[in-house]
Each structure stands twice: as structure tokens, then as C-alpha cells.
Amino acid sequence: MDAILLAVYILLFPGFLFLLAYAFFFQFLDRKISARMQNRVGPPFLQPFADFVKMLGKEVIDVKGMDRKAFDAAPILALAAVMTAFLYVPIVGNSPLAFQGDLILVLYLLTLPTIVLFLLGWLSRNVFATIGGVRAVTQMFIYEVPFFLALLTPALMAGSWSITDIVAWQQSHLWLAVLQPIGFVVALIGLQAKLERTPFDIPEAETEIVAGPWTELTGRRLALMHLTLDVSMVVGSALVAALFLGGPLVPWTITPDWLSWIVGFALFFVKTLGVLLVLASIKVATGRIRIDQLNDVGWKYLATAAIVQVMIVLLMNYWWVSA
Amino acid sequence: MTLSQRLANWARMKSPWITLFNSGACNACDIEVIAVLTPRFDVERFGILAKGSPRHADILVVTGPVTRKQAPRLRRIWEQMPEPKYVIAMGACGASGGVFRGLYHVVDGVENVIPVDVFVAGCPPRPDEIINAVVACLGLLKEDLAHGGKAWRTKPKVIERVVPTEGTPVPPKPAEVPA
Amino acid sequence: MAEVVVPIGPHHPALKEPVNFKVVADGETIVRLELDVSYNHRGIEKAAEQRDFVRVVPLLERVCGICSHSHTTVFVKGIEEAMKLQLPPRAQYIRTIVAELERMHSHFLWLGVAAHEIGFNTLFMWTWRDREAVQDMLEEMTGNRVNYGINEVGGVRRDLTTDQIQAALKRLPHLEDRIAKYVDMVNHEQTMMIRFRGVGKLSRVDALKLGAVGPTARASGVDYDIRKDDPYIAYADVPWKVVTDTHGDVYGRTLVRIGELQESLQIVRHCLENLPAGPIKVTSPRAAPKGEVLSRYEAPRGELVHFIRTNNTDKVERLDIRTPTLANWTSVAVSLVHQNLADIPVVVAAIDPCLSCTSRITIVNERGRKTGELTWDELSAHGRAFYRNGRRA
Amino acid sequence: MSELLKLEQVARAMEGIGTPEAVKANRIRVPTTPAKVKEAVRRALTDLACDHVVQIAAVDNGKAFELIYHLTGPHRTVVAIAIELPRDKPEVATASDLLPPAGIYERQIHDLLGIVFVGHPDLKRIILNEDWPANEFPMRKDWKPNPNTFYGGVRKEAT
Questions:
Q1: Which of B29, B31, B60 is most worth mutating to test chain C (most C CB atoms within 10 A of its CB)?
Q2: A270 in helix, strand or coil?
Q3: CB contact C294 to D (< 8 Å)
Q4: Does C235 lie at the interface with D, CB-CB under 8 angstroms?
Q5: Which residue, of A278, C37, C55, C175, is most buried by count of CB atoms within 10 Å of its CB?
Q6: CATH number for the domain running over D7-89
Q7: What ipTM score was computed for the predicted complex, to two decimals?
Q8: Is the whole-model pTM more than 0.90?
Q9: A77-107 confidence digits (pLDDT tens)
């Protein structure tokens, strides 16, 4: 693809601008669904955009003795990492930047915001922030292993480390959610933990340690970190939709090129909304569990389920290859 | 005003975040402020969110006559909030100490500790009056942005004393009125 | 081994009221708890000595917003006992109705706040939506959602009209099945059970020794309830039973409070249905004869006590208020040691602290070791050490 | 719900300390001296099966300070042990080792009325704010707030 089309791909359509709009739309939907489930009216459509612009306009407060430059750079780093991860997930058709092993890159880029949260907690010299940061890292150790295992089993079955190939493989076989149900469930729970949403929002536990690592963030830093969380929600659900629900491709080929793009985008849209609906209802239906309970749940149930899933996939591969 | 200025004003009007500070109140006002967040009065439809930390909030809702022990903390919380910040003093206690005026452990009213922008009448004010107060506070925010800051409306601290023309009886100063 | 001093409060989202905990925590478990509460002290007892019986009732109404009717009823009942006044039964019934409605709205409020403490916001929204029905009933009967102002020495200031009674009776069935729904939700919802079971355990002996009162004590099997022990207003001739439980932890207290919700609803229905006719107040003399009265009342949070000494004038010589939350502080401080940092809001919320009534402090020192303020690098060193050798530092 | 205590029961338990008089059906008052109050509380806890301290009321009746310990138990009768303390040196032995919640009540009484409880683990400031002058006790009848001392809150020039 020549340079101009690539630039459009990165900056305009499935890249920067579209991702921003889609992130705001996702935040609006998430707050609206959980509000309606709590029998409230919920925010208006442009609310996330208004929050973002207002936060940009607020005064930025620096705590005494804080490393200003690092504190400014951290949110930008987190946002950049999550945005580049979105480029490798197929949206319309195959993503032009795909290469063998981009699944590993996306997973790595998705863990960067948690480390940045820990960094923010550490830099802001506030007891609540530090404890929040330590909890964020503790939580990451717990859910990271099962989440990675659950997301790597599709690669094992499809025999390739690139998301685009996995999506292409699913075009000719059943959806991986059907073939690997346990992996699908573990991936959803892991995603909920990565996005630090209610059953697992221990670092930001509003009623225990004020706002965790977010306590000292004000003005544009807060705006960027909120945006990072929204974008990582979009990227996470797009990743789960691509790996388990078949992504934007349809089994039979559609002749005119632009029509297949539109159908592909519509499928992507519907599938990511489905994932969001599941995440929002988990958030509404449960309370927050403690860090040590998360430890038990994480290692006893999630990890074993992921390992069992890997075993099943290896066995299935063995039979298919031999059959 | 430039486009970006209008956009900033629109955004500030559309997403006021409040934080609640109980400065020694009888917590009737507090449960009414929390009732504002619940399904019947639901303020999230106006974009109002209740934030835990003063760092993230725009409007500080203060309830109760400030007790002597809570006054320095109220002052520190107010200083921690980032600029364009506003203060709503709740109920009769916030305005003048209400039924607790003159008690030995109470600094009567929020005015003596931090500058207040909006007072809400009532003991406790009903939830819809509280929403009305936030809307009034947003109106104030709009005017302040037009005049560039709060200076235009803060009344001068020193009130000059009007020299009475002879013949008219001088009203006794409040201290002289027999208690 | 250095410890982390975590100040929670006085401005903290978990606590709807100003209390300050200096929690000395070793990682996530609490070693020592310093509690500093007196941010709400306004000097009401001193002011009460300068106000006559008519003007002191509005002041006592605002000791605490959630249990305002309790404070006025216990004071007015004490003064009537000193004056040896005989109240008409209709006034006693109206006071009981408003008292039980206040208990219902207070317990609904507590259920929501307890769920909010563990992040379960849906239940918070639902319980507070149902509480609005109770608020409407109170507003129709007394004219105000909170601080009802229905009590005065010698009786009640407002009468109940028949359509107010019918409107209230129509709302009760809906509330009844909502409460039933919350009972099975508390018993089956996973995250609530994990966060409530076994947290803040208080044995029966400890509950008695540490002077716990109200639902906190009744959840550990202590069956003290002033409405049964020392019946006042109309509780003697209303059929109801004391709700107790044996779990002794936050889960037990939740069950006791929901049980009391159901009992209160039955009491309100009974009083509304057979409200005796007759006058609603009797003219009371201006001054109260010399005497000393210990007036006790079962507030939503526990046993509320007003010690009133009168001296032939129309003012109180001394009013000493002992509030239920004050009695519960010792038990919460003891049951918190060894718990998790994340459990503080839940256990504190479990005694449903009403800080506007209370302003006292206690220090519980578990192993009595010296813990000074931590410098920054000690804290970070502690963090690394704590996680390097698997939470045993 | 055992039945109420009889007057003779209390008299037998408290002989040598004070003569009880029944103020009401379920309230018996035992006036005694400050020296014997600890012994009275111990007997109430053991012989009269009281296990719950209702309240420790403190009154300044102009001439002297009065302390009234209200105790109750499963028998649902309130045993009130009343003592009188001289105004110039109000001291009494602490009851917090027998009754743990008394630790709080005594510290509040010390703050408001200035009664010293000998043997109390840490009789620090509880109820008034940090910069309240140490020797002023607001609940005393003869206390008037004098305008020029600073009782706390934010200093005038800070607003």
C-alpha cells in the first residue's frame, strides 16, 4: 500500500480520529447501559466529549517535590501504546500492517497502561496513590497469566501468530468462541480485570483509598488517562471480537470491494457492542472483591481453566493433524 | 469569543463534577445531596458526577455550620481543588450557622472560612432545590467566564459607615443592643 | 518491620461523615487503629441549658438528620415523665408511626450505603429508590422529608387525616415485596456474601463486654431492645418481636436490619389500621418539677439515652446525651484489628455510624509497638520488601 | 427476660456501700462516696449480673460535680450508682478496666467538665479541637467564652 493510503489508515479511518470518536461512544454506551440497568436515566450522548474537553481546561496542580516531566509523559505514553495496538486489529478487512507475531505485540501494548498507573501512583507521592499503584500491579500479576493463555489458544488452533491469519482461519472453520468456550469466558473476565472495572476495580476503589493512583491527576493528565481507559476498552473488545467471534470477515466472498468493507465494518461494530454489553452487565451485577480474594479467584479458577483450555486445543490439534 | 472559548464554556457547563464535604452537619443535608444521585432525582442526566477526591471536582458542596475542628480541614480541601472552582453552602447552617448559631464549638457559617458562591435555603433543602442550586452555580460560571474571573462580583470587604445627618437618630451598633 | 500509616478521612468518599482513622496497616492487614471523631461536636448540650422546652425541641431535632425523631421523642418523653403528664393514646400512636417510618428509611439508607462501600452500586440505587416511598409517606404526614418537627412537650403537633392513612397503607405492600427481594439477594449474591461473611466478627461475650448496642449487638445474639425491655409510647400494645441473629459479622447485621425493616413495616401497618380517636396533645405546664430522669429509646442504630435533670424552671439544668454510635465505636475498633485494609469501610458502615450524634474517640493498641511517621523511602522499601517475599514481610 | 431486680436484692449486694432507693419500677439509685464507687461497680457486675453500661452521666449542679453510673443486665433494671465530687479537686478512680466502653465516656467527661479519672490509660483530648485552651471546660456552669482567646477554627486573617 502506498504511503498516502497507509497514512489515511493510521490517522483517519480505523486509526486515530475514528478511535477517539469510538472510544467516546463506548464510554457513553457503557454509562448509559449501567444507568438504565440501575433504573436511572443516564448521561446525554455528548457527555464523554464534554467531560474530556472540560478536564483539558482545568488547572494542572503539581504536588511539591514531584518529578513534573515524568508525571506529564506517563499518560501520553499509555495513550500512545494503546492506540498503536488498535492498528493491528482487523477492523474493515485485513489490517495492512499485519505481520507474524502482532498478537504478542498487541497484548504487550495493552499491559502498558497498568504499569503506567503504577508509575503514576509512585510519582504522585501520596499514600493513597502508592497503595493504589501497588494494588494495580498486584492485580496485574494475578489476571495477566490466564488472560494471555486464553488469548494465545486461538493462535495455537489457527497455527499462526497474526490476528489477521486467525480471522482468516475462522472464515473457513467454526468461530473460536464455539470451539473454545472456556477460553472465551476466561478472556472476557481477564478483559474486565484489565480495564479495572467493578468486580476488579480494586486499585481505584473509590470508597477505600480515595481514587488510588488517580488521586493526584488533575487537568489534562486526568483527561488523557480517562481517554486511555476508554481506548483500551475499545481495543480490548475489538481484540476479543476478532479472536473469538470471527472478526469482520464473512464466509462467502462479496464481489464489489467496497460492499465487503461496509459489511465487515458492520460486523465489527455489532460484535464489539456485544462484548461491551457483557462487560457492562458484569460491572452492574457485582460488587468489588478484595485483593486477596482476587488472588484466590485468579489462580484457582482462571488459571486452571486457561490451562485446561490449552490442553484441549493441543489434543484437538493432534487429532486433526493425524485425521 | 473564539470558537475554542465557546467550546470550553460549553464543556464546563455540561459536566460539573461535585464533591461533598460535611463540615460538622447534622447530616440531613448530606443524605439529601446523596439522594440527588439516586434514580428518582438522577443528576447524571445533567452530567453531574459525585467525585471522591477534591482534585477531580469543580463544585464543592459544603454542608453544616463549620465546627472549629473542621474549619482548617475545610480550608485545606478548598485549596486543593483546581481552578475554576465553586462553593455551594447548603441550608441554613451553611449560611449563618442555622440553629447552631452561637454555640461554643461552631464557627457560624461557611462564609467565615472560604468564599462561597451559592447559598441554598432550607433545612434540609429538598433534592430538587439542590439541583436548582447547581444550575444557578453554572449560570454564575457562565457569567464569570464572560467577565473573566470572579473579581467583578466579589463585594468589597470593608463596608464604609454612612455618616448620619443630624436630627436622624443613629441606630445603636448591634453590640449595644441588650442581649 | 516498618508499617504504613494510612489516614482515612476526615474527608473521604466512603464515609458520609467526618471521622478520621489513622490506620496502621502492615501491607493490607490492620495492626492498629486510631480513631478521631469529634469533628461534629457543636456543643448542643451547653445550648440546651439556655433554651426553654419549646425552643429546645427544634435544636434537638437537628442533633442528627437520620435519627431526628429519636432525639426529640426521647427528650419529650423524659420531660413528660418528669412532669408526670398522661398523654392521649392517639398522640402515642402517631409518635410510634413516625418512629417506625424513620427506622425503615434509616435501614434502607444503611443497606444502600453498605452496598456502595463494596462497590455494588446497583443495590445502592435500588434501595434508595425504594426509600423514596418511605420519604413520601413521612412528608405527607409530617410536612418534611427529614427533621419532621412533629413532637412537642405534651403531644404531637399534627393530626393524621384519613386519606393520609389510606395513601400510606397503599404503599406498604409494594415495600413488603421489595424487602423480600433484598432478603434473598443478600443470601444469594456472590460478591456480597464474600465481602460480608466473616468480616468484623464479634462474639456474644465481646459484644456484651465492649458495650455494643442495637443491630450490632443483636447480630451477635444479645437480645437487648429497649422497646421490649422498657416499653415506651405505644410499643407495649403492638404485637412485634425482637430480631436477633447469631452470625455476629457484617452479614449477621445485614440480616438483623432487614428483619427489623419487616417488623417496622408490620408495626406501622398495625398502628395505621387501629389508630385510636381522641385529642392529639394535652396542655403542659411551663416548668418541670425538680427531678432526674433517665430516658431511653431504641434508635435505628441502637440504644439512645438522654439523662435529664430538671430544677423547677422551664429550662433543663443538665442534658447528657449518650448516642448509640458512641457505644459501638469500641467494638468496631476491636473487631477491625487483623482485618484487611479494604474492609474498614464495610465494618465501619456495618455499625451504621451516625457521627452527628457522636463525637468521641478511642485508641485500640493491638501489640503496642511504636510506629512513627514513615519517611518516603522507608515506605517504598517496605513496598518492595512486602511483595518480594510473598506478603510475609 | 428474667424479672426485675428487687430492692432487697440490691440492698443485700450493696450493704456497706450505700442504701438503694427505688426511683421507678425498673430504676434503682444507690448514692455512695467516690472512694467506694469502684467497689460498687464491681459488685454490680458480679452479684447483680449487670453486664451493660448504659451511660455515665456527669452533672455540674453549681456546688459540686455529680457522676452517675447507669448499669443494666438481663434483669432489665437500671442500677444507678451516684457519687458527688468536690469542685476544687474532682478526682475519682477510673472504671475503664471493669467496663471497656467507660474508657470513652470518661475521656469525654474529662474534656467537658475537667474531672480527672485516676488510672485511665490515656486521658488525652477527645471532643474539643486541637487548639482549644487546655484548662477551659465548656460544660461547667461558671464557664463563659471570653472573646479574646482563640478557640480554634481558621484565624481571621486567613479567609
A1: B31
A2: helix
A3: yes
A4: no
A5: C37
A6: 3.30.460.80
A7: 0.86
A8: no
A9: 999 999 888 888 888 777 777 888 889 999 9
